Each structure stands twice: as C-alpha cells, then as structure tokens.
Amino acid sequence: MRPRCSAAAAYAADRKKVLKELLRLKARREARLRRLLAQVSRDERQNEANAREGDTQLARLARTRHAMLSWRGRATVGDMGRRAREMQGVLRGVYALNEERCRLRQARALLEERRRALLQARVTLMKQQEKLTLVLTDDDYQN
Where are the domains of the chain? Predict the structure, then answer.
C-alpha cells in the first residue's frame, strides 16, 4: 500500500513550486530592468555627445559673430548687405543651437528621472527576491 500525501505536504510542495516560479519571474524582470538601465546609459552618453557638439558649434558661431562685429573699415552698400545677411545667418544659427541646448537639457532631465525610477524599481525587485529566497530557504530547513 502506497502512503498518501497529506494535505499539508501537498500544500507545502505547491507553495514551494509557486515561490520558485515567482523567483524565476523576478529574475527575468531584473534582467529586463538591467537592459533598460543600459539603454538609458547609452541615451545619456548620446545626449552628452550632442551637447558637446552643440557647444563646439556655438563657440565657432560666437567667434564668427565677434569677428563680424569687430570689423572696422569702409564697405560698399553691396558689401554691407552681404555682411548683414551673413550676420543674420549667424544669429539664426545661434538661436537654433540655443533651442537645441534647451531640448537636450529637457531630455537629460527626463533621462535622469527615468534612471531614478528604474533604479528604485530594481531595488524593490531585489528586496522582493531576497524575501522569496529567504522564505524558500526557511521552507527547506523546516522540511
């Protein structure tokens, strides 16, 4: 005659299976969070590279503007019109770069906020994993 499993033993086995499955799901979620954090890091590096490039262009335009404004001498009407159009182009470039810098600052703030949220979610997840592991090891010691 085969011994029957008691209801308590069946419950404990089922509970252990559920906890192991939860632990596996938490590990998958942690891997996904790590991938998302890596993507945020790549986006932050790209944002910083774009900001450095914009700063370089802005410095170049500032030098050009300074050279145009510090020019002394005589010029014909046509030459003055050409210089005015060049100055207008420089000022448009400065305006566009300042808008781009503002957009990059906003993107940086969003990335920092996203990083904080992902890190908080990862910490919470790791605490949950630790609790599940403790429950599983306690069950193993009790059985």
Answer: 26-133
**Cβ–Cβ under 8 Å, residues 54 and 104:** yes
The Cα–Cα gap between 15 and 116 comes to 34
Kindly write down the DSSP assignment for every residue of 54-121, as one continuous string.
HHHHHHHHHHHHHHHHT--S---HHHHHHHHHHHHHHHHHHHHHHHHHHHHHHHHHHHHHHHHHHHHH
The whole-model pTM stands at 0.75
Q: How far apart are CA 73 and CA 51, in angstroms?
A: 37
Place of tokens 């790209």: 46
Rounded Cα gap, residues 3 and 137, in angstroms: 26
DSSP code, position 42 = H
Measured CA to CA, the distance from residue 60 to residue 88 in angstroms comes to 15
Q: How far is the C-alpha of 114 from the C-alpha of 42, rounded, in Å?
A: 13
Count of helix runs (H) and strand runs (E) in the chain:
2, 0
User: pLDDT (tens digit, 9 = 90+) per residue, 88-141?
Assistant: 999 999 999 999 999 999 999 999 999 999 999 999 999 999 998 988 888 665
